[in-house]
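The instructor's notes for this session suggest beginning with a concrete chain rather than abstract definitions. Hand out the sequence below and ask the class to guess, before any prediction is shown, which regions might be ordered.
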Amino acid sequence: MAIETTASGAMTADDLLKHWQGHRRLTRKVIEAFPEDKLFQFSLGGMRPFAEMAAEFIRMAVPIVNGVSTGKWEEFKGPKPATKAELLQLWDAQTVQLNEKFPKIPQHRFREMDKAFGQWETSGLGTILYAVDNEIHHRGQGYVYLRALGITPPNFWER
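After discussion, reveal the predicted structure:
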């Protein structure tokens, strides 16, 4: 998915959401590619199982959008998925929530400095980009896991 820009070449908030959702679509395909038992149990080199990484993305996505929007940083309050179906159900529910909440972020909040969850001091944009980068990084680990299991992962460019 190409990132569209304004006439000045700047990325809009809508472009950023589309970019993030493209990555989320690809990560969802990675989750789907795992056999149920391997999703929750398989690991290499001391890394966490991919289900734990995906649960981390869930704990971050909507809470980050809410925090950037309001300046109130609240942890994810929801069940920890125990099956692939539960994980995908939460994933899909958050996809809808992101599409609803992201456009409501006031433009000035993208530039304002904040301390997300009391940990990361950066702009709202920086916090969102951190979430995207974190997902990409851990999705790469999921690709390694799938290859080690003899499963061809989804094409990384098909977002």
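Then share the key points. Residues 13-148 form a domain with the Four Helix Bundle (Hemerythrin (Met), subunit A) fold (CATH 1.20.120.450). Confidence is low (pLDDT under 50) at residues 1-5.
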